[in-house]
Automatic annotation (TrEMBL):
Superkingdom as given in the UniProt entry: Bacteria
The GST N-terminal domain, residue ranges: 1-81
Organism: Rhizorhabdus dicambivorans
One annotated GO molecular function: transferase activity
Protein name per UniProt: Glutathione S-transferase family protein
Domain GST C-terminal: 83-196
Keywords: Transferase
């Protein structure tokens, strides 16, 4: 199995972390978005959307979209709750992450860190919605250990990817103490270095 991903992308890292946590055997193919490698004809033949992450299974079938890949990797594991309601809550967070979190927190990070913009150049709506996303997470995590329930799930892996690097997008986490504690728990569960 091959995973095509860009190591600077939280969407790619969450797929890698899930594969590693599950002990899956794969070859990581570093695929730079900034260098246009996702627009190369051979890559577009596998994923016409021209996006990473992308997994190419041993049988040649390909699957894109980070949360879909994570779900495929976690099938039958404890990362997907068996209780119907908790499983639905996990999906709720996965959908929310791609619609209400990633487009603001990750986009702000990309613009500041990789495009060289300064915080004053960010569109105010991006900053406002990024802060709203972090506040919703903080409010939730004040009374819960993990996002979907008190059990670690794919929801936590999906959301920690960009939340842990939110300061690179100008979002200081000191105002979100429950989020900071949760990040530490998830990093420990994933065995990833907090400094990276």
């Amino acid at each position: 199995m091959r995973i095509y991903g860009d190591s600077v992308s939280g969407n790619c890292l969450k797929v890698k972390w899930t594969a590693d946590l599950r002990g899956l055997s794969y070859q990581w193919i570093e695929t730079s978005v900034l260098n246009g490698e996702t627009r190369a004809p051979d890559f577009l033949a596998m994923n016409p959307a021209g996006q990473v992450p992308l997994v190419r299974f041993d049988d040649g079938r390909c699957l894109a979209q980070s949360n879909a890949i994570m779900l495929a990797f976690a099938e039958g594991s404890d990362l997907i709750p068996t209780d119907g309601y908790s499983r639905a809550k996990m999906h709720e967070w996965l959908f929310w992450e791609q619609y209400s979190h990633e487009p603001y927190v990750a986009v702000a990070r990309f613009q500041l860190r990789y495009l060289g913009k300064n915080p004053a150049e960010l569109e105010p709506r991006i900053v406002e919605r990024g802060k709203a996303a972090l506040k919703l997470m903080d409010d939730t995590l004040r009374c819960r250990t993990f996002l979907a329930s008190d059990v670690f799930s794919l929801a936590d892996i999906a959301l920690v990817a960009y939340t842990r690097v939110a300061p690179e997008g100008g979002f200081q986490l000191d105002g979100y103490p429950a989020v900071k504690r949760w990040i530490a728990r998830v990093e420990q569960a994933l065995g990833i270095d907090p400094a990276r």
